[in-house]
Predict the 3D structure of the following.
Amino acid sequence: MTKQGEFAMASPTQQPSEPGLRPEQLPFVAPCHFLQPMAPIRWLKLGWQDFKLAPRQSLTYGAAMMLLSYLVSFFAFEFGNFYSILTLISGFLLLGPIIAIGLYSISCQLQEGQTPVLGHCLREGRSHVGNIGVFIVMLLVVFLIWARAASMLHVFYPETTHANMQSYLTFLGIGTFVGAIFSFIIFTVSAFSLPMIMDRKVDTVTAVVTSVNAVLRNKKPMLVWAGCIFISVVFSVATAFIGLLVLLPVIGHATWHAYQETIDASQWPRHN
């Protein structure tokens, strides 16, 4: 039986970690550890510890996300309909990993025994602007396709006010299935890619492929992790986004620890 700590899918060109490897010597994908199903609970505990160690910095990110959510909701109400509101809000929240890159930096600083500085987080973001930009474009393409698919689902909505329950269930079932597909895509490509981009000198393609590989090889723990994120999003929406003040920072910090525990990126040099 495979134990936690063993590696999955290393490239045939994988070599022991050594400084000064040329790009052509690096593997196409970083190996990953096999995880226990309840590993995400440990990540959340570590994320909560980071939140308590840096409450001001963490709450700043949570407050920014909450205000942006209100702004998106306002424009959706002003210029769209109920379905566009749900699509915009859901898509905006799924772009959370990009916003949370500063939280990864805070956790990294804490891990190195430093006092977290928000200015350092901003400098981190600027230093990775190229790879982050590519990642943002990729997610935006997925999101725009998703938004278009969501608008096309209206054809399944019952046209009469006295439609039976089966018609509504069909509409909800199809909508849930389509949303689940796009959510899975975004979750899979972003689970570990952005922390890896922030941590190592790696290109976007390698980081994304590494993330996809790690998720697919750790289906049970990643299903638990996705469930934790989904519950956090639902709770945040149910509390008019107030829950984002705490839940976003905790999830962001936990994502950093998830990356550290799952991905072995030691062959790529760290950022200076």
The radius of gyration is 20 Å. Confidence is low (pLDDT under 50) at residues 1-6, 9-19. The chain has one domain: 41-262.
